[in-house]
Amino acid sequence: MQSLDVVFLQGDAQVAESLAAALSPVFGSVRRARSLRELRSLFARLQRGVAILDIEATSLEEVHNLTEEFPHSCIVCTHRLADEDMWVAALQAGALDICASSDIPGIIRSAVTNSAGARAAAA
To answer: What CATH superfamily is the domain 20-122?
Structure first.
């Protein structure tokens, strides 16, 4: 099985460091983007990767644009606060899940589980 690659955009530097450390043993490569433009560039190089987006560092419109541009990839959003309305809006924009930024195990679980579903749908 081909290893998965992940690109993430996280506005909080401390969360970004924790996320990178936790993702590294699970994914083939982990790259932190410093901007949405950089994330898009890095993500475009992956055939079927995972993007983890801090919803506070981007917009729901951009989430939608990414899902349109990369239909066979997995997009998981993160947010600092538990917010059911934000969760619904992110899903409607095309994200496969939204997790609290502080729930690193949940983010990993979601990325792994949803990327498997995205790969199966693309096959």
So the answer is: Response regulator (3.40.50.2300)
How far separated are the first and last CA of the chain, in Å rounded?
A: 14
Using 50, 70 and 90 to split pLDDT, how confident is the model at 115?
confident
Q: Which long-range contacts (CB under 8 A, 24 or more apart) does 82-91 make?
A: 86/55, 89/60, 90/55, 90/60, 90/63
Q: What is this structure's pTM?
A: 0.88
Domain ranges of the chain: 20-122
CB crowding 95-110: b at 16 or more within 10 Å, else e: bbbbbebeebeebbeb
In degrees, rounded to 5, the angle at the alpha carbon of residue 102 between the alpha carbons of residues 53 and 23 is: 60
Q: What is the pLDDT of residue 21?
A: 94
